[in-house]
Design goal:
Strand 1, helix 2 and strand 2 form a beta-alpha-beta unit. By secondary structure, the chain is an alpha+beta fold. It has a domain of 47 residues.
């Protein structure tokens, strides 16, 4: 079944910087949530990179044992969330 029939508003076929830029363009700067189910390290990294500050990425499934993914922690666009506000 085509993704548009399942409710997708956009479909992207690339990877890397072009895809990251396109997602940020579509969303006005990034996403609050990302759901990653491929277990492909580059896609997981993209899902994290596209998040806005304090965004949440959910990894569904698991990559093969020994697979590593790296990304920068403590991004400057992350701010402390105050649950009282």
């Amino acid at each position: 079944m085509p993704t548009r029939e399942l409710g997708a508003t956009h479909t992207l076929g690339g990877r890397g910087a072009e895809t990251l830029a396109e997602i940020r363009k579509i969303t006005g700067g990034g996403t609050d949530f990302a759901l990653e189910a491929s277990a492909v390290p580059a896609v997981f990294r993209l899902a994290v990179d596209v998040l806005r500050g304090l965004g949440t990425c959910i990894l569904v499934g698991n990559a093969r044992a020994g697979t590593e993914v790296s990304f920068a922690a403590g991004r400057p666009d992350c701010a402390r969330r105050d649950p009282g506000r």
